Amino acid sequence: MAIILYAHSSGGNNTNSGSSPSVKASGTGAATTAASAVVNLSADSPDLSTVVANDTIRLNARTDGYGSIAPNDVFVITAVDNTAKTVTVSPTPNSNTSGVTWIIGGAFATIRRAWSFAKGGDKVYARGTFTGLVDLTDADFFSGGLATTPITLEGYTTTPGDNGLCILDGQGSTANGLVFTSSGTQRFWVTKNFRVTNYTNEGYRNIGGYPTLFINCRADLCAVGFRVGALANMIHCQATDCTDSGFLVHDHVEFYGCIIRDNAIGIECDDGCMFYHCWFVDNTTTAILKTANFRNVRLFLVDSLIDGGSLGGKGIDGFADGGYPGNLKILNSMIIGCSTAVDNDNDDGLWNLGAGILVNGNTFNYVNYSNRMVEVIGAPTFVARGTDYTPLMTSPAVNSGYDSRASGLVTVTGGQAVIGDLLPAEFSGGGPGGAGLPGGFCDGWGWD
């Protein structure tokens, strides 16, 4: 039995039951019988025609309902009888009561209140702008999800599922934004369509690690945008204008179609990371920095772009520490405008692998690193560097990347691979999220 819960920053109320954006029915005369799952609402003669299974009902002052954080006064409806004016609920109330204030539906006022009821397979929809800390750490142990039934926290703006963003605003005075833990046992969380902004420490703070998935999540104007533990997937996420790092991550973290821009450090990895179709732009010090020995998963940079821009920070720094050789693999990626494109701690020699790299405008291309196959050094040309990285057809990145035809063992129809993320302007113009960079990229991502 999976349920959907709602939290609204404006108009929500923590005395609601949470299962719909607005209240479906309410009254003051609910009656329960010990050991019976049927709740009698006939004293109020309510209209229950819109109530459905998996809605929830709040019975005021009960402590034997669903949830992990008191008050445990919410029950899940499993059946509705509009004629008899009764609902069947789970769990079963354990005492006789009458004249109980009750409410079915209506969004909660806080994400934490909604999250305290979520079990594996459940979803919490959140709308609006919430301020301060959203601390979910003490709610996480109610019931963790599984890989096939995660617990989902999803933002929206007008209609659930519209992919609009819910905003968490630290207002420049709160340390951390969205905080949850996965310690103790494996728990599977999904966070989707959230923006965190103006936190003095960490926008997203995942303590402990274990499997998590972030989709279309953004962080800006924080010290650290995302702190992510082990075994995380980041899809179409963005970090910008963070004073420390856009992402601070542990091991087995993979990035797909992410944009990391205008941070002091783009990514700090203390173990293995993989990047596919990602862009790093104008990160002051380093785009990708290793902070510890890589033991488990190497750094893979595939079909991605690093542009130091006018700031000239390093591209990739600190890999190949000598104890775990061969940690850096680069394929069909572009590193331009950096002080050093790739700066390894040690030269791993034949352990190194680079294929299809475009390097240009760097003070140094490689320190302790060698590209093995297909290197391009010509100046790339774009529709508008800094705002739209779609390459022009005349760019040396076009039809120059490493692809499988080089083996001579396969037949490939069409043009050779393009170095970087996008097809030429004549054929495409799409990048992560659409043509070029997202609208309003250079003036606050269009959020303000």
How many distinct helices? Answer: 1
User: Portion of residues in helices?
Assistant: under 10%
Separation of the first and last Cα atoms: 39 Å
Question: In percent terms, what proportion of residues is strand?
Answer: 35-45%
Oligomer: single chain
Radius of gyration over all CA atoms, rounded: 26 Å
Q: What can be said about the biggest beta sheet? A: 20 strands, parallel
Summary keywords:
20-stranded parallel β-sheet, disordered C terminus, single chain, mainly beta, elongated, 1 helix, about 450 residues, ten-stranded parallel β-sheet
Task: Kindly summarize this structure in a few lines.
With 448 residues, the chain is mainly beta.
Summarize the structure in words.
- This protein has 448 residues and is an all-beta fold.
- It has a domain at 17-105.
- It is 1% helix and 42% strand.
- It has one helix and 40 strands.
- The strands form five sheets. The chain has a 20-stranded parallel sheet that branches. The protein has a ten-stranded parallel sheet with strand order 10-13-16-19-22-25-28-31-33-35, with no helix packed on it. A six-stranded antiparallel barrel has the order 2-3-6-5-4-7.
- The longest helix is centred in the first third of the chain and has 5 residues, at 111-115.
- The chain starts with a strand and ends in a 13-residue tail after the last strand.
